[in-house]
Design a protein that fits this description.
By secondary structure, the protein is α/β, with parallel strands linked by helices. The protein has two domains: 102 residues, Rossmann fold (3-Layer(aba) Sandwich), CATH 3.40.50; 100 residues, Formyl transferase, N-terminal domain (Rossmann fold, 3-Layer(aba) Sandwich). Helices cover 32% and strands 25% of the residues. The strands form two sheets. A seven-stranded mixed beta sheet has the order 3-2-1-4-5-6-7, with helices on both faces. The chain has a two-stranded antiparallel sheet with strand order 8-9. Helix 2 links the parallel strand 2 and strand 3. The longest helix is centred in the C-terminal third of the chain and has 24 residues. The structure holds 5-O-phosphono-beta-D-ribofuranosylamine.
């Protein structure tokens, strides 16, 4: 791919993941341009971050649509206004039925090691609370291609962190988030370099 990879970011919340991408682009370690940010809540702070950096910020409020299909169509309509190579879900808490033309071009990140502690009810601090309640010794983050089921698509990268006795959900979340800040840009770079090959559930990373 020549020139910066063109991204669209979908978010629902504070936009720390968006901020990480903006920072990496500014530092020169990610050759990307964020064409648009779409928020599923009007009060998502991530939209403010986008505006502050001169990125178009669009609201498609989930609660305004009774039928999921109408919401999906509106997201697609908004995305279609831009030329985008890759869609990035960054704390996007809604299910978006990805049209066929975008399959394989939408990534998501989850703050645990999929297939554990993931799915519809696992988001935000609930993930880390569940990890601590279960007593596992490692956690981490997973970057994957999104499909039409929560946290289900083919896995691109995982990074692990230790879980320690004195952890609170917050301390664990912070440790995991540091790894997210490495993993997501890395997955985007691999996509940009054409090094990700999807075969069924498996993603090969080409040399
Ligand atoms: C991250 O932990 C990510 O794994 C999950 O949402 C969190 C980022 O949300 N998908 P935000 O950027 O803080 O709103």
């Amino acid at each position: 791919m020549q020139g910066p990879i063109r991204l669209a970011v979908l978010l629902s919340g504070t936009g720390r993941t968006l901020q990480n991408l903006i920072d990496k682009i500014k530092q020169g370690s990610l050759d990307a341009r964020i064409e648009v940010v779409i928020g599923s809540r009007a009060d998502a702070f991530g939209l403010q971050r986008a505006k502050k950096h001169g990125i178009p910020a669009v609201v498609v409020e989930r609660k305004r649509y009774r039928r999921a299909e109408e919401f999906d169509n509106e997201i697609t309509t908004q995305l279609d206004k831009y030329v985008v190579d890759l869609m990035i879900m960054a704390g996007f808490n809604c299910l978006y039925k990805i049209p066929d033309k975008y399959i394989g071009r939408v990534m998501n990140i989850h703050p645990a090691l999929i297939p554990s502690f993931c799915g519809k009810n696992y988001w935000g601090m609930k993930v880390h609370e569940a990890v601590l309640d279960y007593g596992v010794k490692v956690s981490g983050c997973t970057v994957h291609f999104a499909d039409n089921t929560y946290d289900n698509g083919p896995i691109i990268l995982q990074r692990t962190v230790p879980v320690i006795n004195s952890d609170t959900p917050e301390s664990l979340a912070e440790r995991v988030f540091k790894e997210e800040c490495v993993a997501y840009p890395e997955a985007i770079r691999l996509f940009q370099q054409g090094r990700l090959r999807i075969e069924g559930r498996k993603v090969s990373i080409l040399p």
